[in-house]
Amino acid sequence: MVIDLKKCIGCHTCTIACKVKNGTKPGIFWNIVLDQERGTYPLVKRTFIPRPCMHCQKAPCIEVCPTRASYRTEEGIVLIDENKCLGCKQCMVACPYGARYLNEAKGGYFTGTVTPAEELLYSKRPRGIVEKCNFCASDIEEGKEPFCVTTCPLRARTFGNLQDPESEVASLLAVRGGFNLLAELQTEPSVFYLL
Amino acid sequence: MVTLERQNIYGWPVILDLFFAGAGASLYLLGYVLHLLKTTTSLIYFFSGLGLVAVGTFFLLWDITIRRRIVFLLANPRSWTTIGTWAISFFLLCGIIYLATFSFPLLPKGLRNLTGIISTVTSLLIMLYPGFLISSIKAVPLWYTPLTPLLFFSVNLTSGLATTLLVALYVAEPLSLISGLERATMICLCFQLILLFLFLLPGTRNDAATKESLRQLRASHFFLKIALLGGFLPLFLFLKGNNSFAILGIIFVLTGGLYLRYGIINAGVYLPRFEL
Asked: pTM of the entire structure?
């Protein structure tokens, strides 16, 4: 995935779209948009940085997972096997991006009640296990793009195969460069940013 | 503006596991050494060591949300958690069998030797693995240093020596053994303080996260508390050469060990995640 920070206006549509699609509970954000201010007045610049899971090729979460619940697919997507995870939280400590959350909340977004819509969505997410962005893996299998990509009003996100030199993501990186967050940790993230 | 986040995933259950399992495994190992040297015949060292590791394991399990799946913890030999789980499982199993061979003399002698060796080797692993696990987390630069395994091993050994001394006083071992254990505890205590001092030196670690970790530790007078209450005070009490003072010294050593683990775990600050 390539995210163009020049296009992102911090509207949080991707965050909300992700929550609606995946039915994540309060406090759990598979995708967030961070707001960073740089410089000192009057030379101040504000940048919004969307943060999904980085789907690292050398993912520390996979290395530390004692149950092998965290794994990488052939396409390079890091997923969690819901039937193997026991909530030991080692992956949460190891993830440098803070992209993993333990699903342990009971309630919904409205005090004292869980709406029928929330109940339906939450039923898909087993409690007690660790969750994170899965690049909408089931949609990708059907040939679609992740929901945060299709819903972004500014088209700041581009999704594709980084290994294919003909793909849009590869040509964007070839033309404009691109960087990873915390590249010094050598986790080889699959999410690139354009500045 | 750089945002720094302190880790809040490892909490009290993990700290208590590190404390009890580390001290228990060290006590068991030292008990085995004392038996090999024929300086004691008491089995209470093994009982207490096993008990403490069991208490630590209870806290570790407490921290897991789906406990019916604990067998899955044995699945990834590349993970330090898996290595630790194997070590704890073998330690508890072989330790219990080892103790049983003393109560049932009809059991073959070879079984006692085998389980004795396995439980002792695994007790050493239990002392070692938490340091390696914590130091493997690159995202927390305070922990990501070769000194972390050494520091955690040393604090486990010191806690184990203090507990062994407590047991030795309880069973009224000969004075030579007690004074020997006191001397060993004092030496390890000094070594632990030197290691902690080196660990807290910024050295080449000039990143914002380490600076923040060290700032937090300085703000809570961490090293001063450890050095005074968990170091110099017990040293002074041990030098008094009186059993009551020694027991008080042991309490201070153990409290200092618990506080050291708490401090290091809580001061873990992540690298700034989204610095452009």
From this structure: 0.92
